[in-house]
Amino acid sequence: MKDRFSSGSQLYQLARPSYPANLIQEILKHVATPQFAWDCGAGSGQLTQLLAPHFDAVVATDISAHQLQHAPYFENVSYQIQSAEHTSFAEQSFDLITVAQAIHWFDFDGFYAEVLRTLRPEGILAVIGYGLIQLQQPELQECIERLYFKTLKGYWDAERRYIDEAYHTIPFPFEEIATPELSMLFQWSAAQLLDYLNTWSALKHYRAKNSDDPLYEFKAFFALDDHVNQVFELKFPIFLRLGRLPGSAH
Fold first, then answer.
1. Beta-bridge partners for 119
2. Which residues form a coiled coil (predicted)?
3. pTM for this structure?
4. Deepest in the core among 27, 88, 177, 208, taking most CB within 10 A?
C-alpha cells in the first residue's frame, strides 16, 4: 500500500469531494446486518463519516497518521494505523468492508486475502472510486483535459490507470452485485476548484521537477470577467463495485 497523501493532508481533507448519501444507501441495501464495518484506506474520513451513523462500530484504517489526524470524531469510530494487506483484526469481524478511491494503491492479493479472512459469511465488500472532474463550462473542461492528459502526462503514478478505467480492470475475485450509475454533483467557487486540483498527486510530482505553474491557465481564466466570483457546476462520475464472498449463500 502506497502513501501518496500524507503531505498536504489538511488540504486533502478540506478539498476532496464528499460522497453522496445515495451511495451509502445503495451499499446498505445489500448489508444484512449493519453492525461492524471496516473502512480501509480511509484517509481523512470522507467515507467513514457517512458509515458511522449506520453501524454499531466502524474501524477506519490508513497507513498515514497525518491523514487520520484530520478525520472527524465519532464515538463509534476507531481510527487505526494499519496497512490494507496486514491487519490485526480477528477472522470474520465485519459485515461491510469499504475502500474509497484507494484500492489502486494496494497490493491486490494482500488486501483481498485480508477481506476473505475478516469478512463475515454474509458480508459485503464495496470498492468505490470516482473519475475525472466534469465541468459544465466548455472552456474550463478543456483546461481540465489539457492539464490531465497533456501537462501532467508522465507525472501520474502508474496505478492511476485503474481510475481512468473506472476500476473495470482491477482484479475482483468476488460474487459481483450489479450497481446503478451514480455521480457526485457540486457547485464550487474558483478557490474550491483550485484547492481540489492542488490535491492531485501528479501535480505534486510536476512541481517537484518544474518551476512553472501548471495551474496558470485556470488562474488566468478566473481573472477574466469576474469569473473568480462565479459558482461552477460540476460532477464526478462514481464507480462502485460490490461483492460477496465466493460461494456465499444469499
1. 94
2. none
3. 0.90
4. 27
